[in-house]
Amino acid sequence: MPSSTISPLADAPPAVHASASHARKARFWDRVAVKYAADPIVDPAGYESTLWRVQGLLTTDMDVLEIGCGTGTTALRLARHTRRLLATDFSPAMIAIARQKLTDQPMQQLSFAVADADEPMAGQGEYDAVLAFNLLHLVDDLDRALQLAVRALRPGGLLISKTACISEMNPLIPWLAIPLMRAIGKAPHVLCFDAKALKAAIVRQGMVIESVERHGTRGKDFRVFIVARKGDAA
Questions:
Q1: Are 8 and 42 in contact (CB under 8 A)?
Q2: What is the mean pLDDT of residues 107-118?
Q3: Among 22, 28, 78, 166, which is most buried by a count of CB atoms within 10 Å?
Q4: What distance in Å separates the CA atoms of residue 117 and residue 111, rounded to the nearest whole number?
Q5: Which helix (DSSP H) or strand (DSSP E) does residue 46 occupy?
Q6: How many CB atoms lie within 10 A of CB 2?
Q7: Does domain 15-230 bear CATH number 3.40.50.150?
Q8: How far apart are CA 46 and CA 159, in angstroms?
Q9: What is the domain partition of the chain in residue ranges?
């Protein structure tokens, strides 16, 4: 795949000019960043299955963008399978923790930046793959976030996502528990959709879905893993 000079925040305003929505989201995740970094992975076997699957899709001649990278744990595991991986998150506190991890475990392919998946963060056709793990249910506008992710892809590029489909959970969770938790500041804004709606949103952006999988090993898995490809002529 062709090489390029990656300019991760091309066409995007500086962080100081971030939208009110960006600031709202950042406040919540900045507040919980330290706890988030310390929390154990709920399903380690399922997480490892996802990592193994993604590693098989990446190659060392690929430029990769991760949106919603959190504190960088997954980026650190995947970067060595790429030519270059830019991992982004809208929370400065999350990115600060990720950068400290990178200082402790240097990796020249990897860099971190503050950026919002709901706002432009890359030039058109800069990346061979865009990764979105545990993110798409947290954006303000699903179609907008997907549009921006697809725009960042080169023709033939991959969108690789793993998303919590909140509508597939017990109805008491999305319609009662989450609103109550949001009211007391214990939960972020979330979008409630199922896997069918998510797949339809991806297809609306002109992507071809190549695989839909579930990697969970503990009970019902409401996190759907999707691999979609941008058309060669796009």
A1: no
A2: 95
A3: 78
A4: 17
A5: helix 44-57
A6: 8
A7: yes
A8: 20
A9: 15-230
- In the DSSP assignment, the letter for residue 69 is -
- The pair of structure tokens assigned to 151 is 């725009």
Residue 53: pLDDT over 80: yes
C-alpha distance across the termini of the chain, in Å: 16
Q: Are 141 and 189 in contact (CB under 8 A)?
A: no
Q: Where does the pLDDT of residue 48 fall: very low under 50, low under 70, confident under 90, or very high at 90 and above?
A: very high
Instruction: Report residue 46 CA to chain centroid gap.
Output: 17
Residue with tokens 């400290």: 100
95 phi/psi in degrees, rounded to 5? -65, -35
pLDDT of 7 above 80: no
pTM: 0.87
Who contacts 33 (Cβ-Cβ below 8 Å, separation ≥6)? 71, 91, 93, 94, 96, 97
CA dist list (Å): 225 to 51, 75, 209 = 11, 17, 11
Q: Look up tokens 């976030």; give the residue.
A: 145
Length of the chain: 234
**166 token code pair:** 């909140």
Kindly tell me the burial class for residue 123, based on how many C-beta atoms sit within 10 Å of its own C-beta (0-12, 13-18, 19 or more). Answer: middle
Query: Which single residue is written with the structure tokens 């058109």?
Result: 124
| Both structure tokens of 89 | 């998150």
Average pLDDT, the chain: 88
Q: In the prediction, which pLDDT does 151 show?
A: 96
Cα dihedral across residues 17, 18, 20, 25: positive or negative: negative
